[in-house]
């Protein structure tokens, strides 16, 4: 059986079409590659679209107790890039509802205007190290992770502290 070569895109349906298009284009620092009165394709890289927004005004607010998608995630290339995204969104009044060190990643979780949850993350372990961590006692004891204060991380980064010391799971604060 052949596995896919990559994850291509997500399509979100909304009754708040323009608000959602604007939010996602800003959040991703993306470009609307195509857009009309009911459909927009947004990308931030070489893919023709990573997020599509479909405007369907007749939709009802979803029941929060139903099963379905919990969140999806975007990976940044460094802790510095992740914290820059955090600061950029914070300056626009958009803050994460959760910031956490999962062990193998450091993550910030946001909610878009419709309440869809999106994680921004940076890998702080290679694949072998992450696999070992996920099979070890710290992860078994707490598979969610430890809360982190991103404002504190930003201050530590700006003070010149080593990124390695900021990503160590045992000393995360």
Structure description:
With 173 residues, this protein is α+β, with helices and mostly antiparallel strands. It folds into 2 domains: 1-57, Signal recognition particle alu RNA binding heterodimer, srp9/1 (2-Layer Sandwich); 71-173, 2-Layer Sandwich (Signal recognition particle alu RNA binding heterodimer, srp9/1). The protein has helices spanning 17-28, 79-91, 127-134, 137-141, 150-158, 163-167, and strands at residues 10-14, 31-35, 39-43, 51-55, 72-76, 98-101, 105-111, 117-123, 146-147. Strands 5-8-7-6-9 form a 5-stranded mixed β-sheet. Strand 2 and strand 3 form a beta hairpin. The mean pLDDT is 93.
Question: What is the number of E strands?
Answer: 9
The amount of helix comes to: 25-40%
Classified by CATH, the class of the largest domain is Alpha Beta
Shape: globular
Q: Give the helices and strands as they follow along the chain.
A: EHEEEEHEEEHHEHH
